[in-house]
Design a protein that fits this description.
By secondary structure, this protein is an alpha+beta fold. Helices cover 19% and strands 40% of the residues.
Length: 231
Amino acid sequence: MLDVSSAADAPTAYYTLFHPPERSALFTRTDARTGRMLGFVGRFQTGIDLFRPLVTMACRDASTAADLLAEALAPGRPYILFANINQLSLLSGSMQIDDERLLMIYQLDVRRFDPILNVLVQCRTVVGGLPRCEINSGGQQAIAGVNWQSPAFAEIYVQVDPGARLRGWGQSVTSAITQAVLDGGRIPIYLVESDNEASVMLAEKLGYVDTGARQIYADVVYLGHPSRRGS
């Protein structure tokens, strides 16, 4: 159900296949007659929110999604939903969805990437062996790093202090982290909201292209199995 070579599936594939197993719980369903995979739901403890597990999923139909969510989640409990947009239509009646964000998945086109050299950029390895590149000067900071990495992909992020913007620092540290990911044998991807024009422009200047894939990030509360509530 997942193509590990596709940027569109990369975020879901990371959590499903490569997230630390001691902080992961995966629930699957197959067709008893054919053995065909019908879907899965994963529940993960992450550093994003210590009190709300992250949930990702890939199901072929709403019935499978409802059954697997009932196995994986506790009614009334809040979670973070992080899944391909094609799963959203399968959740009707199972989840209360709030603060929904639609993220575009950008992938680096290596042919368009022209690295930027900036002597202010310092790169190092942080906890978990992930690279991070930063500029610190005059009390201002720009940081680019990696949220997660799988054998094929790594999702990068960039943060720039307001006072450091318009100096080119964001582009410099993003270029450096992009090169670090490439040097590690992976393809960098970048998830960004469409209305974040500055981030979109930064990514496109460095050679990232919109894959057309969309990922949902939302605060949710699991309501229970739609057919079982009130029984």
